[in-house]
Amino acid sequence: MQQEVYIENLKCGGCAATITKGLSSIKGVDEVKVDVEKSLVSFSSEESLLSEIKEKLSKLGYPEVGDKNTIMHKAKSFVSCAVGRVNKED
C-alpha cells in the first residue's frame, strides 16, 4: 500500500539520503521516495508499519508535521543531514 508522511526539518538531498536509508532498513518498507521541496516522504508498506515508520522518522530528526518539533529533533536532523551528505558522496 502506498503511503505518505509530511515531515519537519527536511532541508536537502543529504537529509533525503538518510531518510531513504533509514526507512529502507525497516522490513516491509519499499519504494521510499523523498520530495525535498514538499517535505514529503512516500513509501510502500503495510498500514500496520505506519507508526514504526513515523517513530523512525522522528528518531532521525524528522517528525511528522503536526507533531512536536523539539530542539532535539532539529539537532538530530542536522546530524542526519550531514551523515546523509557524506554517505551520498561515497
Automatic annotation (TrEMBL):
Q: Which CDD domains match?
A: HMA (cd00371)
InterPro entries documented for this protein: Heavy-metal-associated_CS, HMA_dom, HMA_dom_sf
List residues of the HMA domain.
Answer: 1-65
The keyword Repressor is assigned to this record: no
- What keywords sit in the KW lines? Metal-binding
Instruction: Tell me yes or no: is Metal-binding among this UniProt entry's keywords.
Output: yes
Kindly give the SUPFAM superfamilies that the UniProt entry links to this protein: HMA, heavy metal-associated domain
Pfam short name (any one): HMA
Spell out the protein name for this chain.
Heavy metal transporter
Species of provenance: Tenacibaculum polynesiense
